[in-house]
What we know:
binds flavin-adenine dinucleotide; Uridine Diphospho-n-acetylenolpyruvylglucosamine Reductase, domain 3; four-stranded mixed sheet; 22% helix
Amino acid sequence: MIRIFENIDISARNSFKVHQQAAKIVEFDHNDELSQLFAEHIKGEWMALGGGNNILFTRDIEPTLIVPCNCHIEILSQNENSAHIRVGAGLEWDDLVAWSVENDLWGLENLSLIPGKVGAAPVQNIGAYGAEAKDCIVNVEMYFPEQGNFITLAAEHCNFAYRESVFKHTLKGRVIITAVEFMLSKQAQPKLGYGDVTAKVEELGGVSLKNIRDAICSIRRYKLPDTAVTGNAGSFFKNPIVSTTIAEALAAQYPDMPRYGTSDPHSTKLAAGWLIDQCGLKGYSEGNVGVHHRQALVLINTTGNATGSEVIAFARKVQSAVKEKFGIEIDTEVNIL
Length: 337
Ligand SMILES: Cc1cc2nc3c(=O)[nH]c(=O)nc-3n(C[C@H](O)[C@H](O)[C@H](O)COP(=O)(O)OP(=O)(O)OC[C@H]3O[C@@H](n4cnc5c(N)ncnc54)[C@H](O)[C@@H]3O)c2cc1C
């Protein structure tokens, strides 16, 4: 079924809870409705929207927002080692993780409780606690309105990297992801040793799929603001990747500075939250916007009245403070519209 909403407030469709208007939103339940949808309901520009958990709206939105609502989970094949599944883009990401844990399938558990839809997961290659969506994605299925057809792109052609993919570059604004295929393991593959996960898993009774999910849910509930209560979009900034020479020079000055290796020995990832915290900004707020008191990477709509432009102005101040103290640029992770 196709549902159409015109001239509506989108504060309930973005996790920052900013009030802007959208000219038109269309939701569809089935892939075979897409050609009709483009023929009859979309005349000009359009944009795909999931749950709005990684978007900051700074103005009213003229392009039609297209929201996939297809929510199936289909097992395409399985053997004693793994299961190959296909999941509709409209399913809540965490419902998929819960389903995988209930079905003893490993791979997604560290990505528990990341808000958003399955269709958005490949866009920024969501990641947390040492895991990334790309570790399990095998194919991404999408509709190409320019050609009016569906294509399936194998993971190796999606250019996945840290919070990156082809969907943020060459294919940005050109495709609607309609389903994602994952390969999940039936063999235990715990990814521990990141953050406080190991200790929490032990506290819950030891390593199991369910305990890892429960540990991560518990840590995230403690550390991150609940979007139902406080508007935010998770990490507002990406962790900067700098040359290892720069990282070593900074580490000599700041011995406690966290550093993470990357696949390139000449590059080192730094923790943007730590850099912001060192600027004395954790918990700091101005007007309607602030830095979360437990996780400095997260900017929050403190009063519920923040506008997108206010958030941007505040973010620029945070970026300048980090640049001034450490000489490092921190980029935004959130999509700004
Ligand atoms: C409290 C909180 C915690 C978070 N924690 C994490 C975390 O730990 N790790 C992490 O990686 N992210 C995290 N995020 C960010 C966010 O959850 C993810 O980016 C998520 O994938 C966004 O999903 P969404 O459906 O809300 O996408 P949206 O915000 O609606 O869209 C994000 C982008 O994807 C595009 N898009 C969405 N759906 C489609 C589609 N079907 N086809 C084509 N393009 C599409 C949109 O156009 C937009 O550019 C967090 C956010 C919040 C609010």
